[in-house]
Prior knowledge:
- By secondary structure, this protein is an alpha/beta fold.
- 36% of the residues lie in helices and 25% in strands.
- It is built from 12 helices and 18 strands.
- Helix 1 runs parallel beside helix 5 (111-125).
- It starts with 9 loop residues before the first strand and ends in an 8-residue tail after the last helix.
Amino acid sequence: MSGPTSRPRILIAGGGAGGLTAALALIERGYPVTIYEQASELRELGAGVQIGPNGARVLIELGLGAALDEVVCEAAGKEARIWNTGETFPLFDLGADCIARFGAPYWTAHRRDLQRVLAEAVERRRPGTIRLGARAVGVTQHQAGVRLRLADGEEVEGDALIGADGVHSAIREALFGRGPAEFTGLMAWRGLVPMDSLPPHLRRPVGTNWMGPGSHVVTYPVRRGELLNFVGVVERDDWRVESWTERGTREECAADFAGWHPDVHTIIRAVETPFKWALLGRPPMTQWAEGRVCLLGDACHPTLPFLAQGANMAIEDGLVIARCLDAEPGDPAAAFRRFERARMERTARVVRGSADNTKRFHNALLADPTAAADYIRREMAPEKLRTRYDWAYEYDARAASV
Ligand SMILES: Cc1cc2nc3c(=O)[nH]c(=O)nc-3n(C[C@H](O)[C@H](O)[C@H](O)COP(=O)(O)OP(=O)(O)OC[C@H]3O[C@@H](n4cnc5c(N)ncnc54)[C@H](O)[C@@H]3O)c2cc1C
């Protein structure tokens, strides 16, 4: 830090939802920030992301409401369907009711659109912030700062480092030496479908959660409704690669959903490129920060995606870590301890809630159509959904105590 009133220089490893949101929130507060992103171009691939009102509230606070409105969808509602009969159960309203209850919209987005809007805002407000093709491989600290080591041998100095480098975090490894994330036994098929290739009844602006014994399928519209996002989760232990770009075939995907309703197969046949993604987990960490270095997002609390809250947590983290740095001027280590205290319990609750939903969405009772209908009416009853989701949507990262 150059003087008592100047803001510390913050280095961020990773330009995903968490790193970009943190950068934007810090730039707004006057911090000099640089993001070191390993990819040579920012190009999240072929998949969607649901942004609940808790995440949307942060993005709107950061001035991205209008830019996101141009590219997201506001699905009217969410419904459950039984895997083989297709029987449908309305779950909740994601439109006007969401805004009335939580004061912010429920968006569904193409990941690339979200990343582009975030990155453009960062570069507009502080040109040159994002350095691409810069892979972080290690960090050391000294009394007055941190030194981040990049794969090409370059070393950069800063006052503090945020490790926002995802589930395989090199910064976590450098701090805590933990082993690799564990495979959960679940694999996700992911892909996008041009909406105009689907019959009219599958083009409705709703999110659908197909539930079956041992598997489930989630679909929702993205990019103003031009594309349908498809995620099919199966219990498989023969696929361990976690990547956005590992391709499978439509035939292999269809085989994983043999016996499922024709609507599911209509969607699978229309998926442009089916990607395979092993779902990884990690026992909850009890420490995210060490001195002037702190993790956020999937680097410290990776979660199964079954509450659709992982990216939302990373987005909330981004704003809260900036607020914590502001609350401890000139003392990043104290700010990071504050961040851990503010965020650990909430993110652990998301991890637990997501794991609980695996059992719920894949329950053995779903095998029999009558038992399945009773089960869905019981498990997905409005009051149970409110208990499971409202606490996540109500949280306000702008005002939560830090
Ligand atoms: C199937 C599936 C569906 C999901 N659906 C949802 C959803 O609907 N809603 C939701 O909220 N969440 C969802 N998630 C979770 C969400 O994708 C993650 O929680 C979120 O992406 C985490 O953001 P992050 O910024 O922490 O990490 P990431 O998005 O993983 O970003 C990390 C960034 O760091 C870069 N990086 C990695 N290593 C290095 C390094 N050594 N040096 C420099 N850069 C590095 C990466 O290239 C990447 O750009 C889903 C996840 C899956 C698998």
